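quick q for whoever's on today - can somebody do inverse folding on this one?? i tried earlier but teh output was garbage lol. tokens:
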């Protein structure tokens, strides 16, 4: 019987490392504050590569690890909140650069839950019989939407990309269960504005601001403590619900790969769920929060480390702006 399986993973991080000490030269902060409040020590910041450049690199690596050829890919989904353009989509640019000439392509916005939404969407296309092979990429250059004068937010994020190839296969790392959620009533907790309405009927002053050089570029804004509480609750709910769906217990789970937002969020969830912290794979000390990219990067890292063994059960769990959340239960192969 065919399953929907992950048959390849890949990731790419920009080379430039920005440490907490580097940040303390920009804003009034310290390595000690950032490490103790977030667990982050450093992050990668693009010094020229765009979101589609990072997405291409991660996508090419995932494709190579899957053993498929670019023309085998039927669909490319790119999850991002920092695309190069409103249009074309990042996925179309990647399709061209990979030479995936048979693939449909679109971008998806679910903020830091982007990789989870992307994989579940891909799964549905495969299950319906419409497509066989789907490349899902989470890619972000969050550095371009950070307020580098705001110490509460600029210390948290980094740039990067992660990718997986999903396929209709009888063998491979199977998706056993998945779920998606959204709570739009909390959309104001985490925002990054687009363009204000401006046309012959509406004057929001944007053009005047542009002329005066005071037009503000979009920036990430958040209510940090509210996001913190939402994140902890959501990780716990997702883990409990997906275990119920699959009729498994937490003892059956080898690893949990959470969205890499903040070590304290993950530690709090681990404590409340009574799941040992060493089951939670974390790399946020090195990369910070890379939004839609974080779960793909962490999964690829765990795969490359050789720690995942056949039959290991792994939960991917994400949460982010929207507010959105979701989880996927995998049986590794
Ligand atoms: N360095 C030094 N001091 C700082 C910094 C900093 N980088 N940032 C804030 N402070 C100060 C504040 O100004 C405040 O000072 P004050 O008391 O003089 O006013 C003090 O530290 C405490 O600020 P809080 O905001 O109360 O600090 P808190 O303990 O809540 O930590 C943090 C802030 C780290 C942002 C925390 O709320 C958090 O992690 N929230 C979740 C944020 C997050 O993960 N967002 C993204 C997740 S979803 C997604 O990925 C899309």
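ok took a stab at it. sequence:
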């Amino acid at each position: 019987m065919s399953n929907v399986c992950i048959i390849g993973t890949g990731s790419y991080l920009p080379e430039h490392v920005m440490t907490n000490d580097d940040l303390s030269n920009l804003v009034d902060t310290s390595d000690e504050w950032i490490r103790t409040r977030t667990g982050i020590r450093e992050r990668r910041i693009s010094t020229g590569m765009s979101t589609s450049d990072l997405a291409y690199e991660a996508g090419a690596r995932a494709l190579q690890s899957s053993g498929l050829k670019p023309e085998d890919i039927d669909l490319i989904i790119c999850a991002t909140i920092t695309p190069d353009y409103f249009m074309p989509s990042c996925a179309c640019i990647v399709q061209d650069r990979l030479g995936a000439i048979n693939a449909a392509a679109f971008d998806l916005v679910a903020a830091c839950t982007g990789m989870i939404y992307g994989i579940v969407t891909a799964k549905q296309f495969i299950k319906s019989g419409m497509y066989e092979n789907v490349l899902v990429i989470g890619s972000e250059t969050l550095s371009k939407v950070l307020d580098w004068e705001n110490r509460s937010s600029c210390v948290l994020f980094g740039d990067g990309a992660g990718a997986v190839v999903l396929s209709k296969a009888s063998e491979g790392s199977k998706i056993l269960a998945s779920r998606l959620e959204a709570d739009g009533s909390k959309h104001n907790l985490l925002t990054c504005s687009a363009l204000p309405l401006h046309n012959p009927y509406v004057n929001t002053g944007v053009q005047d601001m542009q002329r005066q050089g005071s037009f503000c570029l979009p920036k990430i804004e958040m209510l940090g403590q509210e996001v913190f509480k939402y994140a902890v609750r959501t990780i716990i709910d997702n883990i409990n619900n997906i275990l119920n769906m699959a009729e498994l217990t937490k003892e059956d789970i080898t690893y949990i790969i959470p969205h890499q937002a903040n070590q304290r969020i993950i530690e709090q969830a681990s404590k409340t769920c009574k799941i040992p912290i060493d089951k939670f794979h974390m790399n946020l000390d090195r990369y910070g929060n890379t939004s839609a990219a974080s779960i793909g990067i962490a999964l690829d890292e765990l795969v490359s480390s050789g720690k995942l063994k056949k039959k290991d059960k792994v939960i991917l769990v994400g949460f982010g702006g929207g507010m959105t959340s979701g989880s996927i239960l995998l049986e590794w192969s």
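fwiw The mean pLDDT is 95. also The longest strand covers residues 159-169. so keep that in mind when u check it
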